[in-house]
Amino acid sequence: MYVCSCFGITEEQVKQHADAGRCTPRQIASACKAGTDCGSCVRRIQALLGRGEGCATRTKLDTAKPGTPAAPAAPAPASLPVPPALPVPVTAPLPAAASAA
Ligand code: FES
């Protein structure tokens, strides 16, 4: 099933990219451009990655035993605030250059 109709990217392709270690919508966009045109697919991509179905790293994190840290947590510097999770900005391609004129 298509996830990104702008670039013809399927759910399976997103999962393959996730298996290759691309576990954020931004990384998926870098790999196949999904989400970089109209942006309407970014939430679907996020949902695919968020469930851990396609991302080996997330699956490991999600299935870690309670009380067992999945990854060593690096202490954040006290002087820097930790930003909340932000939606992935979608960058629109530059309009075609007016050079055609
Ligand atoms: S549907 Fe993915 S960028 Fe438009």
TrEMBL record:
Protein name according to UniProt: Bacterioferritin-associated ferredoxin
Metal-binding as UniProt keyword: yes
Family recorded in the similarity comment: Belongs to the Bfd family.
Pfam family for this entry, one: Fer2_BFD
Chain positions covered by the region annotation Disordered: 60-85
Molecular functions (GO terms): 2 iron, 2 sulfur cluster binding; metal ion binding
Keyword flag tRNA processing: no
Keywords: 2Fe-2S, Electron transport, Iron, Iron-sulfur, Metal-binding, Transport
Domain BFD-like [2Fe-2S]-binding: 2-50
Composition bias, Pro residues: 72-85
InterPro entries hit by this protein: BFD-associated_ferredoxin, BFD-like_2Fe2S-bd_dom, BFD-like_2Fe2S-bd_dom_sf
Domain of life: Bacteria
Gene3D superfamilies with a match to the protein in the record: BFD-like [2Fe-2S]-binding domain
UniProt feature coiled coil, ranges: none
